[in-house]
Structures are given as C-alpha cells and as structure tokens.
Amino acid sequence: MRENKHGVHVIGPDGSILTTASLPPTNLKRWVARRKAEVIAAVKGGLLTMPEACRRYAISSEEFLEWERHYESNGLEGLRASARPLRGDGTMH
Fold first, then answer.
1. CB atoms closer than 10 angstroms to residue 4
2. pTM of whole model > 0.90?
3. What total of structural domains would you count in the chain?
4. Residue 17 is part of which domain span?
5. Which of 41, 47, 53, 65 is the most buried if burial means most Cβ atoms within 10 Å?
6. Taking the chain, what is the end-to-end CA distance rounded to the nearest angstrom?
7. Does residue 27 contact residue 15 with C-beta atoms inside 8 Å?
C-alpha cells in the first residue's frame, strides 16, 4: 500500500492505481475477471482486509479464497466464468 497526493492506493492487476474510490462498485451483479482481480489486489495490497472485501461485495470468504487460488494459479484467465475448476494439484482441468 502506498500513499501519494491522491491518498492511499495499491497497484492493480493491469498496473493502474487502485484506491477505495476506484474499486468495483458494491452492487455488482456480474463479476468479470478484471474486477475480481482488482478486489484481490486491494486485499493483497492492504487497501481492504479480506473480511472487509467480503462484506463490501457480499461474497463468502470461501468464494474470495477460490478467486485468489484461481488467480494465483492462472492469472486473469483463471478468474473467467468459463474457466474450469482447479484440480487437486492446482492445475486447470
């Protein structure tokens, strides 16, 4: 987490600056891979805690951890809705 004249921020998955104001809206109905990755980056960078992110976006901790596992294993592609689930060894089917 860094602070500059624009306030506290982290670097997003595409290299852009993320602040609490630029995070995905809280009323999302459809999650795309980029938005999931932004929430993961916000948590990893300390902009939000995992419980804060889960409350803010009405997701379970299990769902967040699943996003995180898929992102760490396969990047944005792993977060796409059409991506297949991970096998026990952490690779995509």
1. 9
2. no
3. 1
4. 2-79
5. 47
6. 34
7. no
